[in-house]
Design goal:
By secondary structure, the chain is mainly beta. The chain has a 3-stranded mixed β-sheet with strand order 1-2-8, with no helix packed on it. The chain has a 3-stranded antiparallel β-sheet with strand order 4-3-7, with no helix packed on it. Strand 1, helix 1 and strand 2 form a beta-alpha-beta unit. The protein starts with a strand and ends with a strand.
């Protein structure tokens, strides 16, 4: 599932459209992000309520990616379940395909026997402003 704060930049970077678009997806690498289904957090990246600047999970101008064969977290964050590009890994890059350290798009695999949750109803970054829901395209 791909979430974006806007479609044009996402399409330029990844050469494909996001699945959901919403202002809540405008994160900058130091935000916790929760994925909700039916009002319940089913997955989380980062520590909710904590500014991730200078933490082990900061990825400013880079990316964070759920490691292969790791399912949804049921709402708790475990840093060992994620892979990171490192800070500023995408600075100066024109597209994901041209990046020295590209985001591993379309490569995630669920653990054997795990059930993929149905599409999330909304998403919200850890912020008190503009907690808009991500809307289906």
């Amino acid at each position: 599932v791909y979430l974006a704060s806007e479609e044009v930049g996402f399409q330029h970077w990844f050469e494909s459209a996001p699945d959901f678009i919403g202002a809540a997806a405008a994160v900058d690498g130091n935000d916790a992000v929760e994925l909700f289904k039916g009002g319940v957090a089913i997955d989380v990246f980062g520590i909710v309520g904590v500014d991730g600047t200078k933490t082990l999970w900061e990825y400013m101008d880079g990316w964070a990616y759920r490691s292969l064969n790791i399912g949804a977290s049921n709402g708790s964050f475990a840093i060992a379940e994620w892979t990171f590009s490192g800070k500023n890994a995408l600075d100066g890059d024109a597209s994901n395909a041209a990046s020295y350290n590209p985001f591993p798009a379309a490569s995630y695999r669920m653990p054997a026997g795990a059930l993929l949750p149905a599409a999330a109803a909304s998403c919200a970054p850890d912020t008190t402003s503009d907690a808009a829901a991500c809307l289906p395209r």
